[in-house]
Amino acid sequence: MSARNAATFLAADVGGTRTRFLLARWRESEAAPDAHEKPQDTPSQEGFSRPAPAWEPLCQRVLADDAFASFTAVLDAFLADCPPGAKPELAVIALAGPVTGRRARLTNRPWTIDADALAARHGWPRVELMNDFAAQAHGIAAAPRETLHVLQEGAIRPGLAAVLGPGTGLGMGFFLREGETVRVFPSEGGHADLGGFDPPFLTSWSAWLAREGRIPSWESLLCGPGLVRLTAFLAAERGQSAPWPDAPAIVAAAGEGEPLAQTAVNTFVRALGACAGDLALIGWTVEGVYLVGALATALRPWLDAPTFRAAFAAKERHAGVLATLPILLAEDPLLGLKGAAAFACRLLAGDRA
Known about the structure:
23% strand; ATPase_NBD; transferase
């Protein structure tokens, strides 16, 4: 790729429910990374010593995944809406699944994304894949502090930070600031066992999940479908049925005071607090924990309540430390897309250095 012509890029944030796209023109910054700081083969884990340059949007869309049979199909639909002749020199695709090479599969949707096949099909000089929570971390690192809602006050100290988001699945990741450098570490920890969370609950929950052939992972509970599953489980224990079709309807019913929905949401939030506390201990995330995504945003009134913070800090010997860590909520629905775009700009800056 000729760095001199690398001015237009495509960024995508591919989730299990929606795919967000951006086609943009990069505004080159006078400050570019030094040659030794150029990104290597794993873009989701590299750091940079300069802020990302800005971009000028040319086309932006959010498309529902259910309307398309494959990522190729949803990408084609987006490109059909873009200005003719605006061909990207670089595409950065963030996707909800583990990324270990040039080809990756979404965890909660049967789509496979092949970077080399995309480059060949569209004639793009460069295509990079990254985990969606690596993109979320890049987005948080670039977000102004005043755009984040504080769930727990605390002094930000140098060290790892955690990102956690219940969505179609449960996403996790870590990032580390070193001056203006941001290093990102993706995680698939949402698929870890719930462990010691509420043993009496876990006994019944495990039996319920076995009917679906699932194990009690954090993601079995802490995601949109998990909230639906939890509500059906609690209803069955009461000899009832749950009338709500999805997580937004359950959260809305809880906000209106419906007892079953309130119990489900309170259980969910307590579990989310426990999971966030576990993540903080695993990474010793002294910079803090950041919650992201539409479901976390919808749950803000419950996250502001003491139950969430109490579950977060209920970790025996380290409860006192956890009670002092910052917990923040990022409510921007385009945070992951902006993180992928910021990363694309840094790649372009590195190519020009």
